[in-house]
Amino acid sequence: xxxxxxLFYGRGKDDYDTNESFALLFHSWSLVxxxxxxxxxxxxxxSQFICWTCVITSPITxxxxxxxxxxxxxxxIVLSNLGVAINCVALPLKAIHIKVNIDRLHDIGLxxxxxxxxxxxxxxxxxxxxxxxxxTRIYAIFFFLYWFYGTASWLAALFAHK
Length: 162
What we know:
Layout (H helix, E strand, L loop, with lengths): L1 H8 L8 H14 L10 H29 L4 H40 L7 H39 L2
Helix pairs in contact: 2-5, 3-4, 3-5, 4-5
Organism: Zeugodacus cucurbitae
Keywords: Membrane, Receptor, Transmembrane, Transmembrane helix
Protein name: Olfactory receptor
């Protein structure tokens, strides 16, 4: 988990080898439930539960907040909220696109595991490493934004009516 937060905030170790990068990618994958991973510790169960809760409830909380705000706000605010809502709907589509790219990276990783180390070109290893880091950052940002849109909208609507 520390590696993911370090990667997300751009601090700490930045030169992961290929195996570490893929392990990091698969771990961030399993956090949002795309890779079936049997949780063995209570911390993993809680972590997956929180991630799944955020992923499932964020569109519901966002649109509930959007509908609640539409009642008594000016049209400009409603339109800007609607723009954010469109982004919120588009994020799962972006996630599908990212998942397809990550699947391709997974295939590349399997190829690298099959090859003997002396046949791997350093340029190819560097390219795979960079692609894994970028995909992991994109995926982490997608997850954070998706959850943040829902929570922020719901809280904004809640405070607007009090």
